[in-house]
Amino acid sequence: MATTKPAKLPVTVEKPTPYTFDLGLLLANDPNPLDLSTSSSDEPRQREQDLANIARDGAQSLVNQLLTVCPISSTADGVLLSLPQPHTPLPREKPIPQPKPETKWSAFAKRRGIAPKTREQRKNLQYNDQTGEFERKWGYKGANKAGQDAPIIELKAAKEENRKDGTTVRGDKRREIREKIKRNERSMRKNLKRNEK
C-alpha cells in the first residue's frame, strides 16, 4: 500500500498586519491577535494544531525575510548568512551592579601610583634553586613555612633574652602568620564600616 506524502505548505505567509522583524536577534513579532475561538476547548489536539500553524507561519516569514534581506556568502566552511546588528533593547535579568566603594588601600594606591599585581606576580609558584623544582610560595607546604618543622633550629641570644614567658622559637612563625591574618581581618572590617557611612 503506497504511503501518501504530506501536502507542501505555502512558502508565502499572508497576514492582515505584516510582521515586524529584528533579524539581529532572529526575532519576528506578530501583531495580529491570537484567535483560537474556532478551536473548541474540548479538542486540545485541534488547539495544539492551530498554535503549531501560527508558529510555523512566523518561522516561515522569518526565514523569507532572512533570505531576502541578509547578504549570503559562500566559503570553504559552507554558506554563511550575515546578520545585521540587533536594534531591539533587551531587559537585563539583574540590575546594573553598583560600583564598589573605594577602600583605604585603593585610595592610597591611586595617590602613590601603585599598579595592581599582574597575573604572573599573583602566581603561587616559585622556582627553588636547591631542589630544582617549583614550589608554592604560601599555603600547604609553602616556602614561607620553611624551617618550621626543622629538627634543629638556630637560636639568637638577643631574641631569647627578650622572649615572653611560655613562648617557644617553634611557635614564632605560626604566631606571626596568625597575627598577620588578624590584622588583615581588622583592616577589612574598618573598610566595611567606613564604606557604610
Could you explain the architecture of this structure?
The chain is an alpha+beta fold and 197 residues long. The protein has helices at 44-69, 104-112, 119-122, 157-161, 171-196; strands at residues 20-22, 27-29, 72-75, 78-81, 125-128, 133-136. The strands form three sheets. Strands 1-2 form a two-stranded antiparallel ribbon. Strands 3-4 form a two-stranded antiparallel sheet. Strands 5-6 form a two-stranded antiparallel sheet. The longest helix is centred in the N-terminal third of the chain and has 26 residues, at 44-69. The protein is elongated, with a radius of gyration of 36 Å. The model has no long low-confidence stretch (mean pLDDT 84).
- Alpha carbon gap, first and last residue: 84 Å
Number of helices: 5
Instruction: Outline the low-pLDDT stretches.
Output: none
Number of strands: 6
In round numbers, the mean pLDDT is: 84
Descriptors for this entry?
197 residues; alpha+beta; 6 strands; 36% helix
How are the secondary structure elements laid out?
Elements: E1 20-22, E2 27-29, H1 44-69, E3 72-75, E4 78-81, H2 104-112, H3 119-122, E5 125-128, E6 133-136, H4 157-161, H5 171-196
Antiparallel strand pairs: 1-2, 3-4, 5-6
